[in-house]
Amino acid sequence: MNREGTSTSASPAAVLAVGVTVTALAVLDNTVAPWAPFHLSHALAATAIPFAFGGLRFLAPGELRSFGRWALALLGPFVLQAAATGLLVGWVPLLAALGTNVSDPVAVSFPAALPAVFEAGAARLGRAPEEVAFAYLGFVTLWAGFGEEIFYRGFLQRHLAARLPFGAALVLASLLFGVRHGAQLALLRPFPVIAALEWSLVAFLLGLVFGVIYRRTGSLFVPIVLHTLFNAIPTVSYLLAAGG
Questions:
Q1: What dihedral angle (degrees, nearest 10) is formed by the CA atoms of 72, 77, 78, 81?
Q2: Where are the beta strands (DSSP E) in the chain?
Q3: How does pLDDT run across 136-194, given as a tens digit for each residue?
Q4: What angle do CA 211, 82, 36 make, to 5 degrees?
Q5: Using CA atoms, how far apart are residues 198 and 181, in angstroms rounded to an integer?
Q6: Residue 63 carries which DSSP code?
Q7: How far apart are CA 164 and CA 144, in angstroms?
Q8: Which of 21, 78, 100, 194 has an alpha carbon 20 to 30 Å from 7's alpha carbon atom?
Q9: Whole-model pTM?
């Protein structure tokens, strides 16, 4: 049994192969799948595989009685949202300062590219963009905080850390977590590489935070709550804006 709470004998190469395959499903879901842009097969695999392997730890002893962990789980999302928003807002001015052509916001900015995904998905599914946006954000809010944490932290990071130094396991799991988020824009043509890199970088940094918290707490409770509330903030903001 190692510090991540698993006695797995799977090699890092095998664990990474599973991680790459499941992450690649997100790309397929957002391109050729008839339900694009909803990453349904990815969500199914990312949820089922950790339970199939077992060993998930959702609560550590005394965790529900820890004020510090509740404060982190409930207040942390707002801090992370502020940090992520700062990165997203500052991305385009930084590119412009570096001499990059920023005349097409969809090509270089994730906040501009995501509504374009909703429009492309609406045309594909025969729905209004507002309906697709509502369903998409609702799906992300309800599933991603739980499903992504049990897969990228509870499965990938935990099993990689059984054979590799923690830093390597953390970075590898967070890299795949970042790539999976860049795949959210895969439905767009031409593919907005710079915007996808922006969102992948932000997700990678978030993955590092979630992964360190998972390591320090020894359970998935705080990362799941933190991640779920982080996703809920823009969803609520969108609904309020749409209602106004």
A1: 140
A2: none
A3: 999 999 999 999 999 999 999 999 999 999 999 999 999 999 999 999 999 999 999 99
A4: 70
A5: 10
A6: G
A7: 26
A8: 21
A9: 0.94
Amino acid at 181: H
Helices and strands in the chain, H and E counts: 11, 0
Q: Cβ contacts of residue 71 below 8 Å, gap of 6+?
A: none
Q: Tokens in use for 219?
A: 């359970």
In 3-state terms, what secondary structure has residue 180?
helix
Looking at residue 9, its pLDDT comes to: 63
Cis peptide before 93 (omega within 30 of 0): no
Residues across the chain: 244
d(CA 235, CA 238): 5
From the CB of residue 43, how many other CB atoms can be counted at a distance below 10 Å? 21
> Residue 165, Cβ neighbours under 10 Å: how many?
10
Comparing CA positions, the residue from 85, 135, 139 lying closest to residue 110 is 85
Place of tokens 């192969």: 17
Identify the DSSP state of 60.
-
**Is the CA virtual torsion 225, 226, 228, 229 positive or negative?**
positive
